[in-house]
């Protein structure tokens, strides 16, 4: 059993703003573009930010597994830190060890790269360093701070097939048209496996739009717990009363186990998300 880890927060600052990253879980906990307000939600219990889910999402790992993989529960080592007035970049890495093998009995190297310039880019690189193949389902799991979640819309999903997490019996062959007005629960939108995918989160209350581009993913999950499920077992965080109104998660990756990919020995996979704050 892993005991509590001491958080080490590394802050990068340049002409474009500031970024704070906790080495435990390689989790970005604050992103403030220059002259703007905080982009990420930090919840009362200390969760939030941009969490890394690897090598499984939700509870799709081994029997008895912890939620959202092993990466979020371990301390990453600092590999490199580059800073200048124009850009800053931080590279963190987790290498398989006796603790990780208790939950995930495979050898791997997981590298998280954070690049702060006009945009913020988070890149997750998983590599199989062992002698056996293993499956991975993963997500970059950002909690975006919003003025009022029920006023938010996500654009860029027209033509995508989707699945409603509350109604899995309906499958995922339906096609979405138009903008998505954020509602309680999770909807999972599918993208082609290749290329760059671009969507945007519009927040009229805070008067801003977040342009989100990604690579290496096939799914985007838009999730808001709502008042009902905020008290349920589907929420890792212990939300304060009404806190669900202040954030929305727009996650990208492979999502559930039935969409996992296989890493053969020596292979690696890159998942990325770029965030740009646009004025209204």
Describe the protein.
By secondary structure, this protein is mainly beta. Helices cover 4% and strands 45% of the residues. The chain is built from two helices and 21 strands.
Question: Could you provide a short overview of the structure?
Answer:
Helices cover 4% and strands 45% of the residues. The chain has helices spanning 98-103, 226-229, and strands at residues 9-14, 17-22, 27-33, 50-53, 77-83, 88-95, 108-116, 120-128, 134-136, 139-145, 153-155, 161-164, 174-175, 180-181, 185-190, 196-203, 208-215, 219-224, 247-253, 261-263, 268-279.
Topology:
Layout lengths: L8 E6 L2 E6 L4 E7 L16 E4 L23 E7 L4 E8 L2 H6 L4 E9 L3 E9 L5 E3 L2 E7 L7 E3 L5 E4 L9 E2 L4 E2 L3 E6 L5 E8 L4 E8 L3 E6 L1 H4 L17 E7 L7 E3 L4 E12 L1
Antiparallel strand pairs: 1-2, 2-3, 4-10, 5-6, 6-7, 7-8, 8-21, 9-20, 10-19, 11-14, 11-16, 12-13, 12-15, 15-18, 16-17, 17-21, 18-19
Descriptive labels:
280 residues; mainly beta; seven-stranded antiparallel β-sheet
Instruction: Provide the helix percentage.
Output: under 10%
Biggest β-sheet, characterized? 9 strands, antiparallel
DSSP strand content: over 45%
Instruction: Assign an overall shape.
Output: globular
* Distance between the first and last residues' Cα: 47 Å
Encode the helix/strand succession as letters. EEEEEEHEEEEEEEEEEEEHEEE
Radius of gyration: 18 Å
* Tally of alpha and pi helices: 2
Spatial strand arrangement across the major sheet = 5-6-7-8-21-17-16-11-14
């Amino acid at each position: 059993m892993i005991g509590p880890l001491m958080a080490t927060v590394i802050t990068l600052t340049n002409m474009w703003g500031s970024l704070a990253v906790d080495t435990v879980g390689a989790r970005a906990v604050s992103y403030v573009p220059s002259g703007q307000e905080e982009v990420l939600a930090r919840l009362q219990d200390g969760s939030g930010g941009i969490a890394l889910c690897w090598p499984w999402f939700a509870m799709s790992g081994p029997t008895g597994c912890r939620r959202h993989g092993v990466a979020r529960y371990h301390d990453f080592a600092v590999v490199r830190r580059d800073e200048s007035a124009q850009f800053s970049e931080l590279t963190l890495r987790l290498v398989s060890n006796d603790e990780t093998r208790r939950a995930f009995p495979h050898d791997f190297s997981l590298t998280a790269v954070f690049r702060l310039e006009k945009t913020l880019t988070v890149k997750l690189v998983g590599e199989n360093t062992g002698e056996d193949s293993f499956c991975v389902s993963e997500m970059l799991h950002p909690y975006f701070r919003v003025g009022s979640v029920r006023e938010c819309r996500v654009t860029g999903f027209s033509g995508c097939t989707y699945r409603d997490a509350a109604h899995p019996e309906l499958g995922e062959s339906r096609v979405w048209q138009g903008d998505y007005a954020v509602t309680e629960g999770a909807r999972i939108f599918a993208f082609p496996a290749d290329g760059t995918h671009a969507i945007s989160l519009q927040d009229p209350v805070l008067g801003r739009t977040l342009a989100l581009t990604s690579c290496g993913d096939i799914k985007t999950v838009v999730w808001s717990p709502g008042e009902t499920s905020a008290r349920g077992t589907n929420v890792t965080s212990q939300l304060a009363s009404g806190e669900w109104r202040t954030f929305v998660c727009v996650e990208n990756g492979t999502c559930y186990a039935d969409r996992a990919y296989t890493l053969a020995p020596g292979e690696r996979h890159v998942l990325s998300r770029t965030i740009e704050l646009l004025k209204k």
